[in-house]
Amino acid sequence: MADLASNIRLAVDSGKTSLGVNGVLDSIRQNWAKMVIITSKNKPDGLQEILHVAKIAGIEVVRFDGDSMQLGAVCGKPYSVAALSIIEPGNSEILNIHK
Question: Helix or strand or coil: residue 41?
Fold first, then answer.
């Protein structure tokens, strides 16, 4: 998780990301998202639409091993983040982690 977490933080700080369920769905529909990260410890019904839309779009979905408060902390935000999309990875290697 440390490698994923450090790459998430680097992508948030140096690249372009979209946070939250609505932002992620918008980035997928606009064909901007290159990868989606969702928390593994979350209510499954809240993320079902993201999983469905990402599958149709052919976008990789990575599960973050933690809850939304932990993902928010990794992103450097003082609030919970259930999902984020990577639009531009910036200086991170996040797009190469699961390839």
Answer: coil
